[in-house]
Design goal:
The protein is mainly α. The protein has one domain. It is about 45% helix and about 10% strand. The strands form 2 sheets. The protein has a two-stranded antiparallel sheet with strand order 1-2. It is globular, with a radius of gyration of 19 Å. One of its GO terms (cellular component) is cytoplasm. Keywords: Antioxidant, Cytoplasm, Redox-active center. This is Peroxiredoxin-like 2A. GO terms for molecular function: antioxidant activity.
């Protein structure tokens, strides 16, 4: 029985790799946003808002609020000079289907309003001259940031700020 499971897993992994290989050339590569571009961002604080698109991150809001403010980039300037999109070929990727199934099991039916093909991201930005401490950009639909990395980065910020101030 174990051999059959291993064989099925190997075939599924191979098919996943083939589908990703075929669709990767059609993905929009990310461009780093220059500082001038980011300065034009309209950041608004999240006032207790919870967004279905980021439930796990939104659930951390009380913990993150203790360490600093949480912002939403309404103009989407942090997406970069060119928004990254995944077209219909994205539905050939196994990871997209797995993410969709995971969201459906959690009771999310999706957001049918707005631009559904834009890939998002999460940034942790330090105070002053610290700059961007953590950057996560979706590779495909449902590619989520590692929550532990966000918490670890945010908790590390005050220590790094103290080290900069003591120099």
């Amino acid at each position: 029985m174990g051999l059959i499971v291993s064989a099925v897993a190997a075939v599924a992994g191979f098919l996943n790799s083939v589908m990703n290989f075929l669709t990767d050339p059609f993905l929009t590569p990310p461009l780093k946003a220059p500082l001038k571009h980011l300065e034009e961002a309209e950041l608004t604080t999240l006032q207790g808002d919870k967004r279905e698109e980021a439930t796990e991150l939104s659930s951390l809001k009380p913990e993150l609020d203790e360490l600093g403010e949480v912002f939403l980039d309404k103009k989407r300037r942090f997406y970069g000079p060119r928004e990254r999109k995944m077209g219909l070929l994205g539905f050939l990727r196994v990871g997209v289907w797995m993410s969709g199934l995971r969201a459906f099991r959690k009771g999310f039916l999706g957001n049918v309003f707005g631009e559904g093909f834009v890939l998002g991201g999460v940034f942790v930005i330090g105070r002053g001259q610290q700059g961007i401490l953590l950057e996560h950009r979706e590779i495909e639909f449902g590619d989520k940031v590692n929550i532990k990395d966000v918490i670890e980065t945010v908790r590390r910020m005050p220590r790094e700020l103290q080290q900069i101030a003591s120099k």
